[in-house]
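Model the whole thing, not chain by chain.
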Amino acid sequence: MLWYKAWLETRARFLTSLATLTIFCAVFVGHAQGMIHPEWKADFNRLLFVSQQFIVIIWILAVVLLGMGGIVREKAIGSSSLTLSLPVSRARLVGIRVGVGLLEALTLAVVPWTTIFLVSSLARMPILITQVGFYILLLVGGGSTYFAMAVLVSSLVEGEYTSPAVAFGAVLLSAIIFDAWLRPYNLWRLVTGDFYIDRHTYLLSWPFPWRGTLASVSATALMLFASVKAIQRREF
Amino acid sequence: MTDAPVILTHGLTKSFGDAQAVRGLNLSVGANRITAFLGQNGAGKSTTIKMLLGMVRPSCGEGTVLGKRITDAEENREMRRKVAYVAEDKPLYSYMTVEQTVRFASSFYPDWREAVAGRLLNEYKLPSQRKVKKLSKGMRTKLALLLAFARRPELLILDEPSEGLDPVGIEHLLQMLVAQAADGVTIFFSSHQIAEVERVADHICILDSGRLLLNASLDQLRQSYRRIDLVFASAAPDNEFRIAGVEKIQAKGHQMVLFAKSNAEAVVERARDLNAVSVEVAPVGLREIFLETVKEN
């Protein structure tokens, strides 16, 4: 039932984000492909690349919101005593919330790109499924760090509105700092595919950036571990 | 009745910065009793309960609930399986309906009694499909109590359970407490409503400024505490009554009022030796005992 609770807690945020992303992708790609001739393949691929930029923006906003919540927020709104009196360890409470959040984040990546794939195929401008897979892997593998950061912030910062404000501030600040001084490690450029796009064909060029993605997944794991520890140590 | 304590603490202390919320608490709560935990606001009652349930870590000292160490996370989790708890603010999930809340809570406890939950839903007139955020304060309190009463725990901990209830709801609550106790459930509850406490509790603990000032059975308190009114022919000789057991002496002219927590017979004997014109001994209610105990501290 903790899965059910986590789903009830996040479903409004998740469904709103999913609808926004899916409608945006369908309308954007559907509208744009009507203006493009089949021979202008590179332009269409460029359009997909631009779509990914927009998807990343909305996806990050969504996963940061999905990462909010948990027992610290419950303390702020006065329901933490009920959760903490359950015969469940705090690690399990965090683990289930993270599990539901990651599944939702994955869905938020897969559904919009599947929509793009279907709309393009219906309009006789098919795109390679490998390119779709590449974009999704970049989004989930790299972008999960943003989700983990949101979970960590929500485990450390109390307050219904303070926590999202801090999380969004951290996303913005990290984007600015990395782009200015640590560009080769800029997560944003990894997730959008900016590092791997061929500027002539506007296709993502293989091999897949496993090292960057693994580094990102490791950072995710580290932040989630830190979140569990923070919740275990915290007093309510 | 067994004498093994259900709750046992030794030197339990909690500090928040420089402020000590609970100071060296040595508490022992016996099984199969209704124990009331009394104290003023900020006395440390809720902090103590939170320490028992592992929500707050003690600064020092130790304790066990149902034989499980409160500071060991795994033992504490095991213990919570057998303990039902209703917190002071009656926490519930606002986004769930009444039915979802009941179904959610029932899934965690093997001692859940479906029939009792259904009966209480009817008695409390709780609308199953209504979201918790749309319930009145009284209904929320009833739902929080239902989640505890639908179980058959070994220990029931209630923090200010009657807050938000109307007189009918309070009456029902008191009856439920007595019924649970008769069913072998140990009850430990905090309250400011002394009249209610006096009706159901058989053991009283008074906490003030984080210190346990009193831990005795209600019968024992009723037998030992006395108010003694004395009248003398001349000025009341209050200095003659500073004897063991006398807590307070109020002398005014020829009259004197004494509050004794024991030794009332000695006071009466002394009064007769001093030729008191009138000697009246009366039992003392819990309210007065509480006020005098707290005032003295």
